[in-house]
Amino acid sequence: MTEARDTIDRNRRAFLGAAAGLAVAPGVLLHTVAGAAPRSAPVTSDVRWGLLIDTAKCADGCTACVTACDEENGLNLQVKPEGQSEAKWAQQRSVWIRKAKLQDNQTGRITNLPLMCQHCERPPCVDVCPTGASFKRADGIVMVDRHTCIGCRYCMMACPYKARSFIHEKVTAQLTRAPRGKGCVESCNLCVHRRDNGQESTACVDACAREGHQAILFGDLKDPASHISQMLTAIASRQIREDLALNTGVRYSNI
C-alpha cells in the first residue's frame, strides 16, 4: 500500500509540474513563481518602490532589460497582424521599456538610458483617467486596471514620458501573471507580480546584472538602510522632466 501511495504521489507531482506550462484557457499560460510566497498583508505606504539607473553603466546597443521585460510580462508573445507593415507594427507593438539615446548639443556626449513608466508620486495619468483605471498603489507603483480601462487613452496623452502602450489587437497569448486585453492601456508596473509574491527584484534589474553592467538598482526609497536609498544619498541623481515636479520613483545618475 505504501509503495502504491508513493507512486501516486510522484505521478501527481509530475503532473502538477508539467501543468505549470500548459494553457489553462485559450491563449493563457499558467506560470508558477519559484520560491515565492503570495502576499498575505495589504499593500501599505510604509514602502515606496523605485529604481536608480546609472546611465554611465548602460551599454550602448545592449537591450537586455527590454528583452527581459518582454519575456517577464508576455510582450514577447505579441504577433504582428497579417498584412500589417513593419513600420506600423513598430508603432503599435506594446513596449514597456525602451532604450533612449541622448546627445549633448554642446559637448557631443552620448547618453543611453532605459525609459519606462516613472511611477510618479503625482501621476498625470491618474489625474486624467475618467474611470479610475489608472491608479497608484500605496507602495508607489502606478498601474492600470484592465477591467475598468475603457481605452480612451487620455493617460497616454498626459504621460510626459510616453511610457504607455495601447493594445490594438486581440491578445491571443498571454501570461496569467501579466494579463493583457485588447482596448486597454498598459505600462511598466515594476514587476508587480513579483512584489506580491515576495521577490526582491525586477526582470530588468536581473537581466542587467547578468550582463555584468549593474546599471539598474531596485529597492525601497523610504528605507534609509536600503541600497538604493544609500546610493541616492551618496551620488547625484536627477529626474526626467524635473520641471514638472512629479517626484518620480525612477531616478538617473550621470545624466
**Strands across the major sheet, in which order?**
1-2-9
CATH architecture: 2-Layer Sandwich
Task: Indicate the radius of gyration in whole angstroms.
Answer: 20 Å
Output the CATH class name. Alpha Beta
Principal-axes geometry comes out as globular
Give the SSE order as H and E letters. HEEEHHEEHEEHEEEHHEHE
Average pLDDT: 89
Number of helices: 8
The name of the CATH topology is: Alpha-Beta Plaits
Tally of DSSP β-strands: 12
Helical content stands at 25-40%
What structural class do helix, strand and pairing data support? alpha+beta
Provide the domain count.
1
Main β sheet profile: 3 strands, mixed
Q: Low-confidence segments, ≥5 residues, pLDDT <50?
A: 4-26, 30-34
First-to-last CA distance: 68 Å
Tell me the fraction of residues in β-strands, as a range: 15-25%
Summarize this entry quickly.
This protein is an alpha+beta fold and 255 residues long. The chain has helices at 2-19, 64-73, 86-92, 124-128, 154-158, 192-195, 203-210, 227-234, and strands at residues 23-25, 28-29, 49-54, 98-103, 110-115, 134-136, 142-144, 165-166, 174-175, 185-186, 216-220, 250-253.
Secondary structure layout:
Elements: H1 2-19, E1 23-25, E2 28-29, E3 49-54, H2 64-73, H3 86-92, E4 98-103, E5 110-115, H4 124-128, E6 134-136, E7 142-144, H5 154-158, E8 165-166, E9 174-175, E10 185-186, H6 192-195, H7 203-210, E11 216-220, H8 227-234, E12 250-253
Parallel strand pairs: 2-9, 3-12
Antiparallel strand pairs: 1-2, 3-11, 4-5, 6-7, 8-10
Helix pairs in contact: 2-7
